[in-house]
Amino acid sequence: MNKAELVSAVAEKAQLTEEDAKKAVNAFFAVVQEALKAGDTVQLLGFGTFKVRERTAREGRNPQTGETIIIKASKTPTFKAGKSLRDAMEA
């Protein structure tokens, strides 16, 4: 499912116009992104948790040359599914 399909599904499920659903989906994405950027965690009980994971600097290898390189420390967003979402996948 891509973003356009998500907007259409939200519009149908919530009985909204496509434009209102698009605004709602974009607002959700923006709020989650701003919260993660600020270092906060977004926890939606039963659905899952969005948070930022910090990766430390480490050594790696250039696959083409075999040369050892240093991979910089970074922050990456992660999502962990909640129990209700995991249980829904089993049904």
UniProtKB/TrEMBL annotation:
Molecular function terms from GO: DNA binding; identical protein binding; structural constituent of chromatin
- SUPFAM superfamilies from the xrefs? IHF-like DNA-binding proteins
The entry's cellular-component GO terms read:
cytosol; DnaA-HU complex; HU-DNA complex
Q: For this chain's UniProt record, which GO biological process terms are given?
A: chromosome condensation; DNA replication initiation; gene expression
State the PROSITE patterns in the record: HISTONE_LIKE
- State the InterPro entries in the record: Hist_DNA-bd, Histone-like_DNA-bd_CS, IHF-like_DNA-bd_dom_sf
Print the keywords alphabetically: DNA condensation, DNA-binding
Q: Which Gene3D superfamilies match?
A: IHF-like DNA-binding proteins
Q: Which family does it belong to?
A: Belongs to the bacterial histone-like protein family.
State the protein's name: DNA-binding protein hu
Q: Which gene name does the record give?
A: hup
